[in-house]
């Protein structure tokens, strides 16, 4: 059986594929089909825990978990981190009621149509290639987290130092194979159909390292719950 794959991010109206992954925060497997026919689910597909921005995006998503649950919507966080490394991280950085799954091969990212950027010397062909100059010209503005707007690499170094994040061999392997993986969040109805999404793909990278506003996400959740 070949793995599901799509050439563009899934859009509202698309049926989400089934993906089966190792659960991090409980034993066994977790699958998209676990929710289909039962409950809507917000699926967050992130880079690995080695990514300082993703650690914050995961925390932001988890903060809405109880509000989503009140609307009858479950949440699933997927990280491009090997299972044992991910379990160790969440043991020391627990997030209440977090259901997380490990996807070191990024099967779910491809299935939901999230491309992987290749970083190049001079060529930019968004969302497949991005030049070093384009990367360095970007500015990440995280008030309260960064002292000033910074380029992604400087911001990453700063945030990793603030977090005291210690990179393991598993982290380094994920960086080597998936550093440019784009990420996103997809809200599926109880039939497993996408009703809302937020990804890094649109508008030439304008949304890279960003998160949807809680108001935007909860507004979409209200429509799915209704």
Automatic annotation (TrEMBL):
InterPro entries documented for this protein: AhpC/TSA (IPR000866), Thioredoxin-like_sf (IPR036249), Thioredoxin_domain (IPR013766)
A Gene Ontology molecular function term of the record: oxidoreductase activity
Protein's UniProt name: Peroxiredoxin
Stretches assigned to coiled coil: none
Pfam family, one: AhpC-TSA
Cited Gene3D superfamilies: Glutaredoxin
Species per Swiss-Prot/TrEMBL record: Phyllobacterium zundukense
All residue ranges annotated as the Thioredoxin domain in the record: 10-226
């Amino acid at each position: 059986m070949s793995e599901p794959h799509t050439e563009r991010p899934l859009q509202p109206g698309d049926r989400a594929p089934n993906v089966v992954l190792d659960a991090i925060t409980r034993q066994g497997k977790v699958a998209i089909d676990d929710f289909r026919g039962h409950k809507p689910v917000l699926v967050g597909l992130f880079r690995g825990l080695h990514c300082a921005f993703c650690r914050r995006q995961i925390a932001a998503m988890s903060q809405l978990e109880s509000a989503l649950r009140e609307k009858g919507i479950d949440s699933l966080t997927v990280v491009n981190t090997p299972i044992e490394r991910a379990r160790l991280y969440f043991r020391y950085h627990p997030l209440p009621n977090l259901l997380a799954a490990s996807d070191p091969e990024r099967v779910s990212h491809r299935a939901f149509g999230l491309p992987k950027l290749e970083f190049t010397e001079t060529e930019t062909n968004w969302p497949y290639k991005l030049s070093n100059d384009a990367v360095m010209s970007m500015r990440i503005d995280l008030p309260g987290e960064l002292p000033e707007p910074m380029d992604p690499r400087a911001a990453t170094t700063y945030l990793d130092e603030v977090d005291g994040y210690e990179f393991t061999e598993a982290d380094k392997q994920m960086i080597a194979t998936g550093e440019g993986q784009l990420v996103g969040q997809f809200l599926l109805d109880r039939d497993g159909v996408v009703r809302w999404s937020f990804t890094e793909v649109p508008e030439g990278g304008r949304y890279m390292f960003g998160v949807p506003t809680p108001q935007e996400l909860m507004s979409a959740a209200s429509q799915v719950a209704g």
